[in-house]
From TrEMBL:
GO terms for molecular function: structural constituent of ribosome. Pfam families: Ribosomal_L28 (PF00830). The lineage of its organism: Bacteria, Pseudomonadati, Bacteroidota, Flavobacteriia, Flavobacteriales. GO terms for cellular component: ribonucleoprotein complex; ribosome. One of its GO terms (biological process) is translation. This is Large ribosomal subunit protein bL28. Belongs to the bacterial ribosomal protein bL28 family.
Amino acid sequence: MSRVCELTGKKAMVGNNVSHAMNKTKRTFGANLIKKRFFIPEEDKWVTLKVSTSALKTINKIGISAMLKEAKSKGFLKK
């Protein structure tokens, strides 16, 4: 499974390592992802999602149901 947030679509970015001599080599900045279980009260079931920590903060603020609805409307969620 790829390292992509299932709710926001965040994934790895590409950048440069820059040495003291200003030599640049390519590198990737991985997304800060965690695997977390959420309880969906409307469906009365548990769902395991791989989410970014910023998405987790948003879930704590607006709730998992609103976040799932938003992710479905943006096309990040497959269901």
